[in-house]
Amino acid sequence: MSAATLSALPASTGVVPHRTILTVCAMTATLMQILDSTIANVALPYMQGTLNTTMDQVTWVLTSYVIASAIMTAPVGWLANRYGRKNLFIGSLIGFTLTSMLCGMAQSLEQMVVFRVLQGVCGAALSPLSQAVMLDIYPFEKRAQAMAIFGMGIMVGPIMGPTLGGYLTDAFDWRFVFYVNLPFGILATVGLMIFMPRTPGQDHLRFDWTGFAVLALGVGALQMALDRGQTEDWFSSREIIIEFVLAGLGLYLFVVHMFTAQKPFVPVGLFKDRNFTAAMLMMFCTGTIMMASSALLAPFLQNLAGYPVSTAGAAMAPRGLGTMAAMLIASRLGGKWVDQRKLMAFGLISLGFTLHSMSTWTPDMSESQMVTTLVVQGFCMGFIFNPMTVVAFATLPTRYRADAAAMQNLSRNIGAAIGISVTSFMLTRTSQASHTDMAANITPFNRIFQHHDAVAHFLNPATTPGASVLEALIQRQSQIIGFANDYRMMSWVVVPPLLLLLFMRRPGSMPPPR
């Protein structure tokens, strides 16, 4: 989008008619897209029976959506410039709503996968465009507040997804997991049609098919490898090796092409801004923690602490409340009151301590301890996400805004995928190693079985009941060790983002150049 076009937007004057309505519509679109990445998880067993598939096959309902969404996130900036931001936003929202209905009506796995791919293609633009619209309609001095509102949707969506999905599946049917998008999609679409300022497209732009092809190859292969690695035993599988080789080749060719092509679809100037580049890398690192810690918490509470599914889902709410509160506070403190980099440093250091404290959790922990830790952890994440987003766009020229939002969302999604895969892999391997070490001590020569009659009676490995009880105890303890090691490992992931703060410049009081 040209500088002249952008300068003509109402946002440049700081007064945008119907700003509240536009904010609600943009956040509704974001929540729909974020929710659909997690809301279908709890409905998979029910889909398996209806669609007559195996559990391994039905996971393609999730994989197809994630891969399609990741591939189509990068060209959002070019598409917005070419066809106009309003046209792309409305078209994507209509497509997402219609494909959601088609997913709900699917009668076979093949239909479901095709519809989920189309849903991911249409939904990829919703979150980046929502962020770009929020930056457009709010003046520079209120940008922190705008990003606080946007951040709430990004952080709360993954938490609400499983809970809402479980409720809709239990109360109605798994198809309502997709049908729920219809009323919200219609309202958001009508609101954007009526109130969003129109920005003309640039017909002269030509798409960089080479750059898109190699990036799609790299991102798609990486997502496939991360999603299927655990089930295929990682590098012992030829499929996973090939996917990682293709991912590395595609991403390498994309970087080379971006710096050598005359007009790549991701502009090189985007990465010349030091604040944005550092913030994008920080988003990648923090994305690994945010999603991986959530993915670990649910099985810990259900499988080890014995929480019901509904209670385990509700246990995620305190972290979301802490995040929302921190974002509101950070939006007020940032800017002229406190250096945004100091807020991020506080959030990162505190987040590391909370993750380390979670490494000491046992299934016997009190509910008050768990809730307190999660509230503080959410509070820390709010102090990271809001200032990080503000700093990322503070010095970036406005013409790069849509591209920047797309790349930032892509880095967060890739970071989340890597974080979940790595922690799942480490949990399995650490639990297996701990199980082997503890089982090696179960021998007739162990003095515990020689001098304690009660222990020898109930835990006698020579009897079937005793062996069963011993196996359950060892399995439980090995999983506790696995979860502890995962959280301890994640506590060190905050170190690279802390070092990235050294490369960031403090935003000034003036808006970035057009």
Furnish the topology, listing elements before pairings.
Elements: H1 3-7, H2 19-35, H3 44-51, H4 55-58, H5 60-73, H6 76-83, H7 85-105, H8 109-123, H9 126-137, H10 143-171, H11 176-179, H12 181-195, H13 209-228, H14 238-260, H15 274-304, H16 309-314, H17 317-333, H18 340-358, H19 367-394, H20 401-439, H21 448-451, H22 453-458, H23 464-491, H24 495-500
Helix pairs in contact: 2-9, 2-10, 2-12, 5-8, 5-13, 6-7, 6-20, 7-8, 7-12, 9-10, 9-20, 10-17, 10-19, 13-14, 13-20, 15-19, 15-20, 15-23, 17-19, 18-19, 18-23, 20-23
Description of the molecule:
By secondary structure, the chain is an all-alpha fold. It folds into three domains: 12-204, MFS general substrate transporter like domains (Growth Hormone, Chain: A, Up-down Bundle), CATH 1.20.1250.20; 208-264; 281-514, Up-down Bundle (Growth Hormone, Chain: A), CATH 1.20.1250.20. The protein is 74% helix and 0% strand. It has 24 helices and no strands. It has helices at residues 3-7, 19-35, 44-51, 55-58, 60-73, 76-83, 85-105, 109-123, 126-137, 143-171, 176-179, 181-195, 209-228, 238-260, 274-304, 309-314, 317-333, 340-358, 367-394, 401-439, 448-451, 453-458, 464-491, 495-500. Helix 9 packs antiparallel against helix 10 and helix 15 runs antiparallel to helix 19 (367-394). The longest helix is centred in the C-terminal third of the chain and has 39 residues, at 401-439. The chain starts with a helix and ends in a 14-residue tail after the last helix. 48% of the residues are buried. Residues 1-14 have low confidence and may be disordered.
